[in-house]
Amino acid sequence: MKKREREVSRGFFSKKVWMYILAIIAFVIVILGIRSFFYREGRIKEVKLFQVKEVKVKPQETRFLKDIERLVRGKSLLFLNLEMIRQHLLHFYPEIKEVKIVKKFPHLLLFEIETRVPFFQVKCGDTFYTVDNQFRIITKEGVASKSLIIVDIGSCPSKLAEGEVIQDQKVRKAGQLIKILKNFNLGKVDIIVAKDLGSLSLICNDTRIVLGSSDFQKKLKLLTLLLKDRFNNTLSSLRYIDLRYDKVFIKKR
């Protein structure tokens, strides 16, 4: 008798599980039906349910806010294509590195934006391209930055556009040098001249230091020792230093 009761109990539980499964399937079908109803000719039909009434950007970036509001305000949170909006922002704003979009029901859309950090400027002809540490062009300007190191590569090998990653070896060598320079206290580096890799040099406190295209770490260590032993840790009395060869060439002012 008890065995039969257990079998009946298991049978009842099985029916209950199936009811849950059928309920979930029905719910999914209803949602898909509602969604397909609002999609007409590839466009989302405007609905008033859960309309976007507020947009927040973190950190506060007013330069993006107007375009974001144009894209989303008044649209339903239910049917917004967040990936399409994300790709739009990444494409039209090269300074944006990544963006996360979060729906906050009933009416808020939150944008968490990570912007690219300027690393240095590439001087190409009369144009200055601000790039990040991945050599992606953030902005294109007609004037030099007062806070970034300028890398002068002479004429442009090709047309460069915002959002493009620069592949030019002169730019990449200069970027490598800038990263290494952070380990040395040479003073303010104004410009790196990279028109020719064989004579790549930097201008520091009006002193030209020629390094060539390799062994930056080794050559800068040698320079540090020379300044300490012979020039009181300063470049002020020096006009020119060539570190490309075994014998260092130094020209005083």
Oligomer: single chain
- Cα Rg: 31 Å
Quantity of strands, as a count: 14
What spatial form do the alpha-carbon principal axes imply?
elongated
**N-to-C order of helices and strands:** HEEEHHEEEEEEHEEEHEE
Number of domain units: 2
Query: Mean pLDDT, rounded to whole units?
Result: 87
User: CATH top level of the largest domain?
Assistant: Alpha Beta
Strand content: 25-35%
Overall helicity? 25-40%
Number of helices: 5
Low-confidence parts: 41-45
Question: Can you name the CATH architecture of the largest domain?
Answer: 3-Layer(aba) Sandwich
Structural class: alpha/beta
Please outline the major beta sheet: 9 strands, mixed
Distance between the first and last residues' Cα: 110 Å
> CATH topology of the largest domain, which one?
Rossmann fold
Strand order of the largest sheet: 8-7-6-9-10-11-12-13-14
Task: Report on the architecture of this protein.
With 253 residues, the protein is of the alpha/beta class. The chain folds into two domains: 44-115, Ubiquitin-like (UB roll); 120-252, Rossmann fold, CATH 3.40.50. The protein has helices at 2-38, 62-72, 82-92, 169-181, 216-230; strands at residues 39-40, 43-44, 54-58, 96-104, 108-115, 120-124, 127-131, 137-141, 150-152, 189-193, 201-204, 207-210, 238-242, 249-252. The protein has a nine-stranded mixed sheet with strand order 8-7-6-9-10-11-12-13-14, covered by helices on one side. Strands 3-5-4 form a three-stranded mixed sheet, with helices on one face. The longest helix is centred in the first third of the chain and has 37 residues, at 2-38. The chain is elongated, with a radius of gyration of 31 Å. The termini are far apart.
